[in-house]
Amino acid sequence: MAQCTAPSRGHHTASGRANCPRCGGGGYGRGYGYDYGYSRSPSYPSYSSSSGGGGGSRSGGASSKTTRPRWAPSSTVLYTPNEVQELESVRQNVEKQTALDRRDYFLCHAWDDRQGSAKELHDLLDDRGVKVWFSEKDIELGVPFVREIDKGLAKSKVGLVLVTPNFLKRIQGDGIADRELSVLLQEGRLIPILHGTTYDALREVSPMLASRNGLSTAADTMGEVATKLADLVAV
Q1: pLDDT tens readout for residues 132-181
Q2: Tell me, what DSSP letter sits at residue 64?
Q3: What is the CATH number of the domain that holds 60?
Q4: Quick one: 27 and 127 in the same domain?
Q5: Which of 103, 100, 205, 134 shows the shortest CA–CA distance to 163?
Q6: What is the pTM of this model?
């Protein structure tokens, strides 16, 4: 059998390869996927910029934000397909209630967050023209607290649950936040907003709430979350 001359003469030119008694013409080398001639650039498999698996609000990678929902085709922010899918039922609920005089959102939060993250989210929504029931502004001094919360729940289209480390502590104590959460879960009209915590931590305290996909400030800024919430109720 003829011997390949690559070790002694090399195949770095077309003529060198052609003169090889074994590899000349390209039969052997090319037949097994090799190309010692370097006459063209090697090809490599192409990979998508986004990996497979669960994306959306739980993983929240920037590369997974690829679309805009039907209700906000010109939105200034992008959504993950999972977010659009999860928010669709909430949007349908909003559309059914467009003729009703109701607040857009009821903001459920831990008492400890009332001057911090809860107020930040409320103010960002207010800046975007969203009507939010917020205990800090809607319950006056001397008014029965629980009764006013009941009214707020009844007069709001959608519930927001701001899930923070403080909130996780509060709902374990069967307080007001736990009462609000129970009502919203029963009616199936709520969006959890995770801030400073994870779904794993939430699942340990409330598996039912953790089963609802929502939005997270780990994936978006609080301002971007507010924009998506404003998109959802815009009619």
Answers
A1: 988 877 776 666 556 677 777 888 888 898 999 998 888 776 655 666 66
A2: G
A3: 3.40.50.10140
A4: no
A5: 205
A6: 0.64
* 51 within a domain of the structure (yes/no): no
What residues make up the domain containing 128?
A: 56-233
Nearest-5° Cα angle at 228, 220 to 77: 65
- The total domain count for the chain is 2
- Please report where in the chains the tokens 């993950």 appear, as a residue: 80
Residue 74, amino acid: S
